[in-house]
Amino acid sequence: MKILFMGTPDFAAEILKALHKTEKVAAVFTQPGKPKGRGHNIVPGAVEQLATELGIPCYTPIALRDGSAMELIREIDPELTVVVAYGKILPVEILDYPKYGSVNIHASLLPRWRGAAPIQRSIMAGDSETGVTTMMMDAGLDTGDMLVTEKVAILPEDDFGTLHDKLAEAGVKAILETIDRIKNGTLVRTPQPEEGITYAEKIEKADAVIDFNSSSSELLSKIRGLSPFPMAVTKLKGKLLKIASAKASDKKTSSAPGTVVSSGKDGIFVAVADGVIELKEVVPEGKRKMSAEEFARGHSGLEGEVLSWQ
C-alpha cells in the first residue's frame, strides 16, 4: 500500500521502520530539526534521520494550511496516511485526501489519555494497564473512530523509557493489523465511548517538581513517569537535583516530608507524607547521572537537610 508517513520522535521512527519492510512508504512528513547543545546546531528528529537512512523522500513543511503541503500530497498521491506523534494539527483536506483516509497510532487505550503525553501520564496516574489504539483521524483531538487496540501491562518497575519501547512494539503490531484489515475489507470502525475520557496534557516544567508531602506511591509513580526524561526535580541546598529512580523503603520516621532521614553507603532516604522513600539514582546540577550512594559519598552531612523546590 502506498503510504504517506507523518511522525517525528523515536516512537514514530519504530513504526516507520516496520512499515518500510512491508509497505511502500512513498514519503515522510516530519517536524524540522531543533537546535541542540552548546553550539545550537540543528539536529534532525529520529524520523528524519531514519527516512534519510532508508532513502525515503522526507519533507519538513513549516505550515500545512498555505496550500503548498496539499499540493505536495497530491503529487505523492498516497492511498493511506499514517500519523504517529507528528506534532501538528492536520487540516481536514489533508486527512481526507487518501483513498483510505488517515490513521493515527495513539499510545493509550482510548478514550483514556487523549492528547500529547499519554505514556507519561498513565504511569504518573498509577495505571496498571495501557496500550495502543489505531484510529481513523477526524478534526478533533484524538476523537476518531477506533480501529485496532493492543493492551500493555504497566509493571511496577516500568518507567517512561521501558514503557515507551513496549508501546512502540505494540504500535507496530496494531498498525500492521489495521493495514491488513483495510486490504481484506474487514476493518471495523468503533466510535469512542463518551465515558472514560481523560486528557494527557503536555508535560510542563512545573509537572516535574516533586512535592514530598505526597504519598510514596504518588511520588514513585511520578518519578517513574518522568524517567529518563525530563526527570522529576527538587532542590538540595538551593541546587537543582534530578531524581532518576527511587523505591519504597520500610524505614520509619517522624521527620517532616522532604527531610533526609539518613544518607551514606546504604543510599539516601527521604521522608514523605506516609513514610520514607529511597533515592536510587540522581543527577546533581551540572553533573552526570550517578547512584545515590555515590552522591552521598561526596556530600557528607546530608542527614537533616530538606529537599524542597522553595
Question: Would you mind describing this structure in some detail?
Answer:
With 310 residues, this protein is an alpha/beta fold. The chain folds into 2 domains: 2-200, 3-Layer(aba) Sandwich (Rossmann fold), CATH 3.40.50.170; 205-297, Formyl transferase, C-terminal domain (Methionyl-tRNA Fmet Formyltransferase, Chain A, domain 2), CATH 3.10.25.10. It is built from 8 helices and 17 strands. The chain has helices at residues 10-22, 46-54, 68-76, 92-96, 118-124, 160-184, 216-225, 292-297, and strands at residues 2-7, 24-29, 34-36, 41-43, 58-59, 80-84, 102-106, 114-115, 129-136, 146-153, 199-200, 232-236, 239-249, 260-264, 267-272, 275-284, 290-291. It has a 7-stranded mixed beta sheet. Strands 12, 13, 14, 15, 16 and 17 form a 6-stranded antiparallel beta sheet that branches.
Total tally of structural domains = 2
Distance between the first and last residues' Cα:
56 Å
The gross shape turns out to be elongated
- So what's the CATH class of the largest domain? Alpha Beta
What is CATH's topology name of the largest domain? Rossmann fold
Count every helix, treating DSSP H or I runs of 4 or more residues as helices: 8
Helix content class:
25-40%
Question: Strand count, sense and closure of the main sheet?
Answer: 7 strands, mixed
What's the short version?
By secondary structure, the protein is of the alpha/beta class. It has 8 helices and 17 strands. Helix 1 (10-22) runs parallel beside helix 2, helix 1 (10-22) packs parallel to helix 6 and helix 5 runs antiparallel to helix 7.
